[in-house]
Amino acid sequence: MARMQRLWTNLFGGWFQLSRRFPAVLLDEMATTIAAGERHHLGEIRFAVESRLAPLAVLDGLDAAARARQVFAQLRVWDTELNSGVLFYVLMAEHRIEIIADRGIAAKVAAEEWDAICARMRECYARGEWREGSLAGIAAANVLLERHFPGDGKANPDELADRPVLL
């Protein structure tokens, strides 16, 4: 997407619907789904939704992938004992979804598997199915993590907050 088009999208692209698309009841449901999944694997999932990027950031060339890496650091997703953090980053204005996995997870789960989750979520979001897309993405991540990073009865302290964050 060209920089000026991205600027326009971030200024006027429906970003103001953040609380309608992600109401408190959905955030609670997402947190419950994350917590339930984390009981069966050693991963730690964080979910962040940002309505738009600042205009100057867009003009400086910041894109969703780079912003997701910033949020990964900001939310300290990297700060888990087993390097097992996974960040879902949704940029509403640009209709972008990024999943960033810490090195412990990235060593076991192929990027294509995360891309498939993003594609499914994007399809749901395009139909206005914000709840379904978010919960399906989390559920799919839980399945991947359980397969590649199983708990196997090991103690798994909850190292990251389960409730999604709205930026």
Automatic annotation (TrEMBL):
<protein>
    <submittedName>
        <fullName>Membrane protein</fullName>
    </submittedName>
</protein>
<feature type="domain" description="TPM">
    <location>
        <begin position="30"/>
        <end position="141"/>
    </location>
</feature>
<dbReference type="Pfam" id="PF04536">
    <property type="entry name" value="TPM_phosphatase"/>
</dbReference>
<dbReference type="InterPro" id="IPR007621">
    <property type="entry name" value="TPM_dom"/>
</dbReference>
